[in-house]
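dumping this here so i dont lose it
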């Protein structure tokens, strides 16, 4: 397997479905993606190869909101900035999976 361009590449589902259909954006996924981008920039993690992006539907709405971190393909759910901070601190800075937020 070739080396990844990024050390960690984070994809947030920010999909907005038709009214009444459950989706990640119902849980402020875009706001929390923006928060992660801001925090990774403030922590200078971009220089260390961390990138956070918006994704279209990741087809895991029932587990949502969700994000996935590559190259390990670890899926997380989250509810607030504290969860995002924990993912940044544990996974992106220290390489440890946050089991309590992990989605199988």
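and the seq i came up w/
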């Amino acid at each position: 397997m070739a080396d990844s361009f990024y050390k960690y590449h984070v994809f947030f589902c920010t999909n907005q479905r038709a009214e009444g259909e459950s989706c990640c954006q119902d849980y402020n996924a875009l706001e929390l993606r923006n928060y992660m981008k801001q925090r990774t920039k403030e922590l200078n993690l971009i220089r260390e190869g961390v990138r956070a992006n918006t994704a279209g539907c990741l087809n895991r709405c029932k587990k949502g909101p969700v994000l996935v971190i590559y190259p390990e393909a670890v899926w997380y759910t989250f509810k607030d900035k504290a969860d995002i901070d924990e993912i940044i601190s544990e996974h992106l800075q220290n390489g440890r999976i946050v089991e309590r937020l992990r989605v199988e």
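The first helix runs from residue 29 to 42.
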